[in-house]
Amino acid sequence: MSKEVTLLNAICVLIALAFLAMVVISAISSGDFLSIDNLFIITVSLLMALLFAVVPLLYLKSENRLPIPFVKRSIPATANGGADWGQLKSNTPPLLDAKGRAVPPDVKAIVARLGKPEVKDAS
Fold first, then answer.
1. Residue 98, domain member (yes or no)
2. Shortest CA distance to 58 belongs to which of 115, 5, 114?
3. Which of 3, 19, 56, 79 could cross-link 49 (Cys pair, CB 3.0–4.6 Å)?
């Protein structure tokens, strides 16, 4: 799977570079830069270059290989004791439903609010 993703990202980068080259060629070769046709070609080419460049950039961001200024990096799962999604460790066992699945957080809050029901004596 990794090779396919790398190949598709490389193709997207090459297509984005081709659209940028088309912008440069259009700007250099045209006699009048501010004609409606030339501005339309440049605008569409820049938009297409942006569209093809977004996919590899989002992939790099999801892999934490794209440095984004003024944004703090999240702590990897192995560094925080294996807790996924930034969950805090607690000493209470997880709340499970009848089939053994984890209960959603809103249901946990309702159960915690209600507390345990009182046991009535049979006598």
1. no
2. 5
3. 19
